[in-house]
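Continued from yesterday's entry.
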Amino acid sequence: MSNHLVTLAKDNLLAFIGFICVDNTLLQVQVYLRSEERAKNGEAIACCNRIVKDDSRSRVSVRCQFETA
């Protein structure tokens, strides 16, 4: 996912008022673990989150939705 975000930003492929919706950015709380304790997917999502957070053009909006069985 982070490669896609970099490409969108670098090549100006997102409209000025465009948005990207990303699901599962917490991945079972793995992004809060130390880097060496994360699974490969957890590390990839943590990296993606850092890219979005560090991009001055980004505005982050969080919506939590919990599903029950």
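--- second protein ---
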Amino acid sequence: MRKHLKIIEDNKASKGIRLANYIIDIIALMIINFFLSLISILLYNITSNSFFFYFYNNNSFLWEYMMGTLIASMYYFVWEHFSGGKTLGKLITNTKAVSIDGTSPTTTQILYRSLCRAVPFNALSFFGQNGWHDSWTETRVINIRKYNEAINAKMEIDAIGVKEIA
């Protein structure tokens, strides 16, 4: 059980910023899917092997949902794992995912965050207090600037009365 820090809750990104993150990441995923479709069509045209065409473009709702979920999960996992809790949307809006105890999310937390997005209606869970993929993984998305200001203010308060060494 992780210690739940108040400073994390006080500096959570707003719902508007979270929506902006979502829209930016969805646009990035659309671009990725567009290029994957082009590659599969190109491979089909070069090889005449229908596997390449139907693997990515078979018009089955279930298959497209599974492929979309797989690609989105990989996108979120790779971004958040290798950029310290940030996706493209979070980089643009200056936010990041952190554990509720203020540490960087573990690889397991990032993996679960990524997989939780496959749950239908996950995006609608943000009409509540926290989204499901935040609550289930004990993570939060914070505004980096506000969080750093709060940390600095706390450190300055803690430093009152401490003798400086020249």
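The two ends are 42 Å apart (CA to CA). The mean pLDDT is 88. Will compare against the first tomorrow.
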